[in-house]
């Protein structure tokens, strides 16, 4: 293999543009760095400017560049403006990873406060719909657009006290599957889901405070599995990659 070919194999997203939500910590940060390592210019979306700047330093160290977007995903009009701004600057988008999410209240459904419910729906589900609405035209302009939305095993289980989170993730799965069906055969855009399973994140620690995080896979391990779903060579669509079993599943997924 020539040096040029080897470099291309090592950086298969060279010259591409990839947007990641929730990019400042945990899974989102790890995915942003994996995409940067593969050569992508990363559009990093997060709420905290300082954390975005720290990520920018890490992306530069990985040999790539970034556009930092401080944005609260409950800001629907802000999401709407994002697509237009990216079109003006880049003319297209090649990868979208919808990772941002909140756990929401771990309480019986009858005791969930309306604001807690609304906030979880806004961040986990409505924001992803608005991102689809804003970014779909840009992804269709790519020769190999790839979208990956992060789901959860909770979407397939009716576990007590997990109702708010589970409902949002079930909604995300139907959202992604519907989007995949709508673009199938009319666009090179591929839309898929990933179930991370137990990962060493702040959200996991909040849900399972007595669990030893050292027994769990790291966000970086998960990111290395998500990266192939973002590559032009990955042609499957409307599927769910289940990280715990390292398998690609078709729907419906059994409980």
UniProtKB/TrEMBL annotation:
Determine if Oxidoreductase is one of this entry's keywords.
yes
Q: Does the keyword Oxidoreductase apply?
A: yes
**Record keywords, A-Z:** Oxidoreductase
Please name the InterPro entries in this protein's record. Answer: NAD(P)-bd_dom_sf, Sc_DH/Rdtase_CS, SDR_fam
Molecular function terms from GO: oxidoreductase activity
Q: Which GO terms describe its cellular component?
A: membrane
A Pfam family matched in the record: adh_short
Which SUPFAM superfamilies does the UniProt entry name for this protein?
Answer: NAD(P)-binding Rossmann-fold domains (SSF51735)
| Transmembrane portions of the chain | none
Which family does the record assign?
A: Belongs to the short-chain dehydrogenases/reductases (SDR) family.
Supply the name of the protein. Answer: SDR family NAD(P)-dependent oxidoreductase
Identify the species of origin: Ancylobacter mangrovi
Q: Output the lineage of the source organism.
A: Bacteria, Pseudomonadati, Pseudomonadota, Alphaproteobacteria, Hyphomicrobiales
């Amino acid at each position: 293999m020539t040096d040029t070919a080897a470099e291309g194999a090592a950086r298969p997203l060279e010259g591409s543009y990839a947007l990641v939500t929730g990019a400042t910590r945990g899974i989102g940060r790890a995915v942003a760095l994996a995409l940067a390592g593969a050569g992508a210019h990363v559009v990093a979306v997060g709420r905290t400017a300082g954390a975005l700047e720290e990520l920018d330093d890490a992306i530069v160290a990985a040999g790539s560049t970034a556009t930092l977007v401080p944005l609260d995903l409950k800001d629907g009009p802000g999401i709407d403006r994002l697509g237009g701004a990216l079109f003006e600057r880049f003319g297209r988008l090649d990868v979208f990873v919808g990772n941002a999410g909140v756990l929401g209240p771990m309480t019986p459904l009858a005791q969930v406060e309306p604001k807690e419910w609304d906030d979880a729906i806004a961040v986990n589900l409505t924001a992803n719909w608005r991102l689809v609405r804003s970014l779909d035209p840009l992804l269709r302009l790519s020769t190999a657009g790839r979208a990956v939305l992060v789901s959860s095993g909770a979407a397939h289980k009716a576990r007590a006290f997990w109702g708010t989170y589970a409902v949002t993730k079930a909604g995300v799965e139907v959202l992604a599957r519907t989007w995949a069906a709508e673009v199938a055969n009319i666009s090179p855009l591929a839309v898929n889901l990933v179930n991370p399973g137990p990962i060493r994140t702040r959200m996991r620690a909040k849900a399972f405070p007595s669990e030893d995080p050292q027994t769990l896979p790291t966000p970086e391990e998960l990111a290395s599995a998500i990266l192939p779903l973002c590559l032009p060579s990955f042609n499957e669509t409307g599927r769910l990659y289940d990280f715990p079993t390292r398998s690609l599943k078709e729907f419906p997924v059994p409980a």
